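User: Structure with nicotinamide-adenine-dinucleotide, tokens only please.
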Amino acid sequence: MSSTVVHGRVVPTGLYIDGAWRAGVKTFDVTDPATGKVIAEVADATGTEAVEALDAAAAAQDAWAAWAPRARADLFHAAHRLLTERAEDFAVVMTAESGKPLAESRAEFALSAGFFQWYAEQVAHLHGTYAHGSPGGYRIVTTHQPVGPSLLITPWNFPLLMSARKAGAALAAGCTAVMKSAQETPLTGALFVQTLHEAGFPAGVVNLLHTTTSPAISDAVMDDRRLRKISFTGSTGVGSHLLRKAAGNIVNASMELGGDGPFVVLADADVDLAVEQAIVCKFRNAGQACVAANRIILHSDVAAEFTEKFLARARELRVGNGFGEGVDVGPIISERQRDRVVRLVGRFRDQGAEVLLGGEPVDGPGSFFEPTVLRVDSRDRELCGEELFAPLAAIYTVASVREAVEFANDSDYGLAAYLFTRDVSRAVAIAEKLDFGMVGVNRGIMADPAAAFGGTKASGLGREGGHDGIYEFLEPKYLAITVDETEAIGA
Ligand code: NAD
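Assistant:
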């Protein structure tokens, strides 16, 4: 097995197919976005290896589906223990390749491992139904079966969380998996499948590909009728493309896509609480989160107070290398993305937005951008509704609750919304009106293995986690069983 050392941690660099690591014909570089330096070279899969990974997943499918729920739960518990022993390896490698502050990597690790605990518990508790057939004479028995070999595609912004949340559900359900890491963050995925291997997941049950040519992988695997499921997390554009591909072979699809989270602060809100939560919800992972506060919508009665306090807190944020002591905001994932943020701020300026803080890239190595706060009067739908994905807070002011709700809902996306008010009745009434899959009431962080994560509209299809997540990888199976009491027992 070829491996490399990243900040003192040994990480496999190959492709993981059928329980073994193998080199690729080519390799590609992994770069630390905080320094711009190459930290590893990993195998670069082609469509050929993708089909080989699917061969392995298809061959392992029946045996894996037949594992007793308790045995599968025990394996998940073992994986959870092993993951936990390697917590710091994961945190360090995540910070090295994604740039996020070490404290955030540690928090991501804890949440990710929690999904293995959650699925260990859930897989032992799946149930079916039993009922009498409508006209009598038979019984209706329903159970669930794994959908089958699944393609799991993850983004770079939460490399372990996205892998653990998807693979946890797929594997717990009894599906085998071909995972495709994001090009920017292959090392975290490698540590993840290595840990599953050591925990005892059988050969072929989980496979991992890294690549610079994602379309070649998805084309090869999705054109193959053995693939029964695609679960994708990433941008809405790519998700839409993959849905069209899935339509070809009528492949079951779950999509976790982009967001445009409104963060609504009403006149009766606890402003200090709203400010603290907005700082986390906006600047965590340098704003590169699908559930980040994209439009901070303030009632005019609290707009001045919120803005002043928010600016004071944003000024305190320390930008720097994620390994640095006390660093709050790491780099943007790549120079290309940093340049996109520069252009985005320019577009806001052109629309008359006032830059209250920051607004510029940071000089030097690495792709950093200043924590930025903009006051925006425009309601240009294209600009205001764009996913910022940057340490860029856009503040809007509204004059009424109704205007706040209408503006919040005026979006193609429907992932996460946030609402700050002290009035519980109003909170419930508004939460029900918000066309989003998740609503945080007086909190800016919601992720929890026990909660169903996902969105409406262009934010996707299906849910991950909670009681629903595993059912994305299960299909109902109905048995109609003839029962003739008279013949069986006698008159
Ligand atoms: P992206 O869509 O560019 O890439 C996501 C993944 O898809 C990567 O692994 C990439 O290599 C792969 N990919 C790209 N084109 C592909 C193709 N043709 N076939 C197969 N795979 C392909 O997104 P990104 O920039 O990496 O991530 C940011 C996006 O992800 C944002 O829009 C964000 O909101 C979204 N996201 C959503 C969630 C969620 O749970 N809803 C979570 C995290 C990120």
